Amino acid sequence: MSRFSILPVIAFVGIASRLGAQQLHGVVRDSARAALLPGAVITVLDSAGAPVGRAISDAAGRFVIAFPSRALRVRAVRIGYRPRDVMLSASGDTLEIAMTRLPSMLATMRVTDSELCPGTATSSGAVELWEQAKAGLLATVVARDTRPAKVRSLTYNRVTTLTDERVTEQTTQITSTYSNRPFVAPAQASFFAVRGFMQEDASGRLYSAPDADVLLDDAFAATHCFHMQAADGDHPAQIGLAFSPARGRDALVDVTGVVWIDAVTPRIRSLDFHYTGLEPAAERVGSGGHIEFRSMENGVAFVERWHLRLATLVPDRKRADFALGFPRDRRSRNELQVAELRESGGNVLAAAWPDGAVWTDSLAGLTGNVVQVRSSLSTPGALVTLSGTNAQTLSAADGSFELAPVVPGRYTLVATDTTLGDYAAPRSTHLSVEVGRGRLTMIRIELPPLADVIRDVCRDQPIPRGTSMIVGRLSLANAERPNGRVVARWQATYNNGSPVTAENSTGRTIAINGAEQRVEMDDHGRFVVCGVARGRPIHLRYIEGERFADTTFFVGDTLLHPVDWRIVLPATSPTDRPGDEENQKSSDTTLAGLGLAGLLLATNRGRPPRRRRAAPMTERRKTHNGRDVDGRFRVRQADVDELLEDPSGPDVVQDDVRLGGAVADIGPAAGSHARHIGDLIDENRQDVGRVVRGEGSGRSRSRSGGKRRR
């Protein structure tokens, strides 16, 4: 497997005044327009022509540079201008450098087939363009060393498919540091001139990318030929300086590429290169790199984004022979094929300089909504991920989401609704997405309807239309996990769902139906209750041995109602003991009915009557099943216990239901529905009595002024 490296470095180079050094102040202007020139590189040279100090002009064209006493002259270079040499004076005055613009040099250069190679006759066009390219590259080097910025960068390593370059693996990292140098070549140009840009041993391969320092070195020019290249569709209004290995370097892995320069506003734009001397399969997929540069108004140029892409080679098993080892001529190895592409790179997200200049990249990423298929219903809490990466987020309450920053490329997006992931296979959707550069791509993700998943989870339970499912999690204080069971009860429908009308009510029993489910929990205390009524109180009871706990809540107009129930079980008490299973069911139903106004058809059948206490019951004359306009029941447990001791207690409870306690009866017509139901029950008193008491006839009661009499 190939291995490669683009080594990130932190370059922080301060300018310290050397002992005995002087400071030179100056300004750079355009000779024709007197305009101030930012981004000019000022180099102080000694008598031998060696550089002894460097600086770059700021947005106002000014520069300050320290130089030793042996300094002799100053050279100013800037892309788009002719280089200018000025002798130093001993006066110490501010040095003004006027540079001559090349107004039409880049625009009118003729592209020819002539090359500038070591030992050949010079070509003026290629030579001048090479000098301009070097001026642009030099600006990035000097700005990096003398005016470092605080940079926030995103770096990545990823693997893509060979067919469509879809990302299958990717790791990213965001760093903040002082640097204008996102990567550095691991060796000097003189090393690459002898050894090439790839080293190979038994452990694999190490690839190197040329940085600005390598391209500026004379050793690079001495081993490469140059020629001019015309603009293409990817590089409009630009002119290219192409380079390729000189003759006699076929046995080395070298680089060939193009430095692209803006022909309108002279500045270096990008560098594209490919490796030469590799296996045919690796060269066919374009193994190489790309570097982009950005020039700021304050004269600073920096590397904005970069990447290096390489092929992972494996034996082609279809071929007859596979040569082991590493032959001297890689270009003849046709028995290898590309398995995948590996890419390493990054881009600068934001940069800030000490002079106040700032730059921010437009975020690339994804944004959109997660909805249910064929509808606009949002899906909150859906997990949105890019397959093979660590990029993920959850959709908000309205189903919206955003993934940024994301490295541009082609991905497989996976959206998963994990709401019922503990009970059924998660709902997932896979989409092919293309993340563009410098923009947020809008997408719409559709997931299967939640109702389909609920039906799958509740396949063994009835799910009437308009009902909901409770997804609960129960936890016990100071306990590892619950060992009991959950019983859910609620008021279902009247007349088994049939409306009460004059036609169907004659001679029929008006029944208030109660529903009950006893559900088991998993090892984590999770449970589901299917088909519960909406807008009515739901009573949950947790039973563990002789102890139990209760809670009551309402389910709104939603398919799914989550419940997080934390319980502190009371100490076992004989008076609170639920009893055996048969009596427990009757007791639970009666107790719950006083709070649920729909499970009130249970009786004291099977239990001996208890003596009534001598003291009058608190609030005896009030409706025991009444509730406020907010839908909450107001019944005291003391009243409940006392009422059940009375042999006729269940009858009194049934009266409460008849008087409207089972219905939230408010508004202008308050009480009318309850009175209608009460009249129907009176007309069918014998049938109601058999249902309530299990007897042949009902207990006679009369009403006067809406109050009960016994």
Structure notes:
The chain is of the alpha+beta class and 710 residues long. The protein is 17% helix and 36% strand. Strands 9, 10, 13, 14, 15, 16, 17, 18, 19 and 20 form a ten-stranded antiparallel β-sheet that branches. A four-stranded antiparallel β-sheet has the order 4-3-6-7. Helix 11 (649-661) packs across helix 12. The relative contact order is 0.07.
Percentage of β-strand residues: 35-45%
Count of runs of 4 or more consecutive helical residues: 13
Gyration radius, rounded? 42 Å
Mean pLDDT: 76
Measured distance between first and last alpha carbons: 94 Å
Amount of helix: 10-25%
SSE-based structural type? alpha+beta
User: Rough shape?
Assistant: elongated
Number of distinct beta strands: 36
Largest sheet: 10 strands, antiparallel
Jot down its keywords.
disordered N terminus, 710 residues, 36% strand, ten-stranded antiparallel sheet
Summary?
The chain contains 13 helices and 36 strands.
List the helices and strands and how they pair.
Elements: E1 3-4, E2 22-30, E3 41-46, E4 51-56, E5 62-67, E6 71-77, E7 84-87, E8 95-99, H1 105-108, H2 124-146, E9 150-160, E10 167-178, H3 189-195, E11 198-201, E12 204-207, H4 212-216, H5 218-221, E13 224-229, E14 238-245, E15 254-262, E16 268-276, H6 280-284, E17 288-295, E18 301-315, E19 336-352, E20 358-360, E21 365-372, E22 383-386, E23 392-394, E24 400-403, E25 409-417, E26 427-435, E27 440-447, H7 450-457, E28 468-476, E29 485-494, H8 502-505, E30 512-519, E31 526-532, E32 537-544, E33 547-554, E34 560-567, H9 581-596, H10 637-645, H11 649-661, H12 672-683, H13 685-693, E35 703-704, E36 707-708
Parallel strand pairs: 1-12, 2-8, 21-27, 28-34
Antiparallel strand pairs: 2-5, 3-4, 3-6, 6-7, 9-10, 9-19, 11-12, 13-14, 14-15, 15-16, 16-17, 17-18, 18-19, 19-20, 21-24, 22-23, 22-25, 25-26, 28-31, 29-30, 29-32, 32-33, 35-36
Helix pairs in contact: 11-12
